[in-house]
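Human: I would love a firmer grasp of how sequence relates to backbone shape in proteins. Could you go through the record with me and say what the backbone is doing? Here is the record:
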Amino acid sequence: MKQNVFIFLMVLVVLSWSVQNTFAQDHGDHAHKENHKQHDEAEGHAHDDGDEHNDHGEETDDHDEHGHDEHKSEDAHDEHGHGGHGDEHGEHEEGKTKIAPDAAKNAGVAIEKVALAKIGKVIPLTGRIVINQNTKANVRARFPGIVRSVKVNLGETVEKGQILAIIESNESLKDYNVTAPINGVVLERNTNLGDVANGKPLFMIADLSNVWAKFHVFPKDADTVKPDQSVRVHTLDEAKTGAATIDMLFPTADALSQTLVAIVPLSNENGLWRPGMTVEGDVTVSEKQVPLAVRESALQTMDEQTVVFIQEGNSYEMKPVRAGISDGEYVEILSGLKSGQPYVSDGSFVIKADILKSGAAHEH
């Protein structure tokens, strides 16, 4: 009996161990499967993330390529824009500018056409404005006596017959008047109240409505410069000009300079010419007709070239020219211009300044 009980207990132990072992194996398999599943899911997630990363990488590549293309496009745009800017300002570099008509007129720009002209061969002379010796008067007292009154002052304008002073005669002890013999200006006053009038000039009066330009002619030009030749008289800055003719050549030469003296009378009703002024005279000794000519004031120098500015509408363009003979007013054009072309005859410095300003702005 005891033996049977022992066998029964041993069977229970074996069965119990078998059941526990099976349960543990199943539980291990289940855990292994769960781990494997989680591992697969993890790998799948990683794989998907990798795909997404690759896709993102490809998009990044596309973005890089797209950005590179855009950069190229921008470069091309920049190059195109820069080229256009250069072309636009190339006109200024080539000597072109635009000025509105009103602005040009207000700046003193004048237009003429290239045309034929008579241009004289000119000899330049230098001289001075002096009083016309034929229209001045030294005023003296008729009789010796005492100066009782002086009626005019230095620089005063007087008329013929006007009383200048009153003198008491030594012989008659009576007063008499000293009057102006001509119209003019009192340039000298050599007497005062109480002085003795004894035959010396009391006043010097000059009619300045007509003066002389007194020029010196050098020996090399003595045989070329002659009376009745035309002379363009002007101040050194060309601010004042006048046209006249040589009236006479003094028959004697200056002892110091060995020059001859040419006298050119000038009308001076408006007081333009003042005695003592230094002037120049362009004497025309011969004339030549040329097919193309412009005014001397039209010429300017740019880029070491002699140029004239041609007008086309509101535009002004620099034209290099080759100049020939000049008489101080007109200059012959040998090349660079055509007959009838409108050009800037006065105010050319305004056009030059505008072109230089535009060029400087472009360089900046």
